[in-house]
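Exam revision sheet. Question 4 asks you to relate a sequence to its structure. Input first:
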Amino acid sequence: MKPMISLPRMTAVLALAVLVGCTPSQMKEEGRFYLSDAGLLDRYQITRSGNFRLQADSRLYIAQSHFVPVGHSYARPNILAEEGLAAAVQVFPMVRRAEQPLGLEEALIRARQQGLDYVLYTRFASARSSAGAQQTPEQASEGDVGRDEVVLQLMLLEAGTERLIDFATITSRTGFLAFYKSRPEDLLREPMEDYTRQLLGSR
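Answer key, structure tokens:
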């Protein structure tokens, strides 16, 4: 009786077959897509309430809520604002961030005081770190061993009118090739870069 081929191995073989004939750049993108889809590399999903776009010269204020992420209370206190700034400065000319977590009203006030157009208010919905955790047999059988996950919520508001113009949820999860080598915080930069590019309409 022939041994069964594992799902990850089968997916990798199929991905390699699809990549035959691609250019190097196409191969890199296609390869990452299939490996992420198979759960081998980090993967994220962005869900937005609309497709609102900002002007290229928009001025942003980025802040993070006081909310402590469920399941990961030791995350760096202002990590979302820090990562949001690092992502947004790549596409917008003037971006500032709060130095510490703020309430929404306080973030809006500070944005207006600094003459900024929009507030990108970020918060953890949940975060799970598997490093050092004892997994149950059920989690292990479902492939959860060593995999970290974060769920973020981002609100984009006009600073002057306080009108909510976009609401996004980002779900990001480590792949099997990265387990026990990352923390939920490490899953933030790439999806936040993607989101800010979407705001500019460059993605």
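Marking note for examiners. The longest helix spans residues 24-37.
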